Amino acid sequence: MEWNLRTAEQLLVALRAGEVTSVELTEQAITRIEREDEVINAICVPDFDRARAAARSADAARAGGEDRPLLGVPVTVKESYDIAGLPTTWGMPQYRAHVPAEDAVQVSRLRAAGAVLLGKTNVPLGLQDLQSFNEIYGTTNNPWNHARTPGGSSGGSAAALAAGFGALSIGSDIGGSLRTPAHFCGVYAHKPTLGLVAPRGMVAPPGPALPVELDLAVVGPMARTARDLTLLLDVMAGPDPLTLGVAYDLSLPPARHQRLSDFRVLVLDEHPLIPTGAAVRAGVNRVADALVDGGAHVVRHSPLLPDLAEAGTLYLQLLVSGSVARFPIEAYEQLQARAAGLSADDRSLDAARLRGMVFSHRDWMEANSRRELHRHGWRQLFAEFDAVVCPITPTPAFPHDPNPDLLERRIDIDGVEYPFFDQLVWAGLATMPGLPATAVPAGLSPDGLPVGVQLIGPTFEDRTPLRLAELLEPRIGGFQAPQ
């Protein structure tokens, strides 16, 4: 039997019933990768010998009466996570030989849950792109169309899931890096509430794996169904045992509702800073129609929604201020000179980004204060609504763009070009205030590319958008294997 495109939940049922062994699942996955990954290039660091050993151990444990959440299920891991004995490079050639001696927290949790790690998935240079290519491992192609990107920076993980290379994967997200690849490849992903999932060991080399509290960035699960997302989030969630875990245990509240007809949903398909392409707008409307058909209360406008233009600008400034903080002083001084030359009347996103790149600490504190006002606005909105449905990016997967200067790149939206980075404003809608957001497939574009949307939920109520995604799945089609 072909198991490679089954869900993790289905694999666990079969394993518990004795219909298949972990060794059989693992060998099938390896065979599929060896046969098909040459053209997709999702698995950049295979770890097949240790995967086979882990599968044998999983089968022995099950034979001995053990049953753990992921016991015997083959999975993949984004290259940026430390796995003891494997290189962690973030695609940076100078760290080609960097091999951590210790697993990241989330890798340890996967192992403790019984998962079988097939290997690592490809990323862009420094995780700084909406594509996934680098000098060390080359380019990852979208399984739906090899001329298109699978997204980034968790593009290798999304491509692996769409291609049937493991039932689950883990990635990270600061600029939509979980949600955009899921949208481009037709799979599911969940950006957890900021701080919900411990990120230690997901660190750029050669830095030590310290339990830092990240701003904006999260780590999270990817899967082919909403229920599998919840299964994996339950394995991943919880504080770092070195810090907050000393004192705190996690207790996520249940989803607000169990029936689709009880949900109150705000649907958005327009952003003041960038147009929404027709294919993505159609995907949003398919989800809106499914909600209405299921009896949900759907609204298209609300005065409670925080200002989207300010939110987008604020997000991009917080994002770039963190990215540039480690630039060499010469490069930083050049940016300062460019920013000083801006007209005071220039309110473009390009100008906002440049100003954000040279934020002083005082500037950052002011931006953070404005962020708190937005967070309060979202709390007020989620007193009236349970979720917000909106795009992840304005378009489906775009063609590979090898231009190394991301500021020179353009994104084509229905025949009109816009600055490449402007498309991040939809991802930032959830990222800037730290909200949970679940990416769900919403059908195909007219040219046969996957289209996804995100379901944004209230802070630390991650189970609410996940439950909504589960209820929507049979109504909007869910995962489809690439055609």
Question: What overall form do the CA principal axes indicate?
Answer: globular
DSSP helix fraction: 25-40%
State the name of the first-level CATH class of the largest domain: Alpha Beta
Oligomer, anyone?
single chain
Tally of individual domains? 2
- Beta-strand percent range: 5-15%
- Give the end-to-end Cα distance, rounded to a whole number of Å: 20 Å
- The overall strand count is 15
Overall average pLDDT: 97
The number of helical elements comes to 14
CATH superfamily of the largest domain: Amidase signature (AS) domain
The SSE order reads: HHEHEHEEEHEHEEHEHEHHHHEEEHEEH
Instruction: Flag low-confidence runs.
Output: none
Instruction: Return Rg in Å.
Output: 21 Å
User: Which strand order do you get reading across the main beta sheet?
Assistant: 1-3-2-6-8-7-14-15-11-9-10
CATH architecture of the largest domain: Alpha-Beta Complex
Main beta sheet, described?
11 strands, mixed
Q: What is the CATH third-level topology name of the largest domain?
A: Amidase signature (AS) enzymes
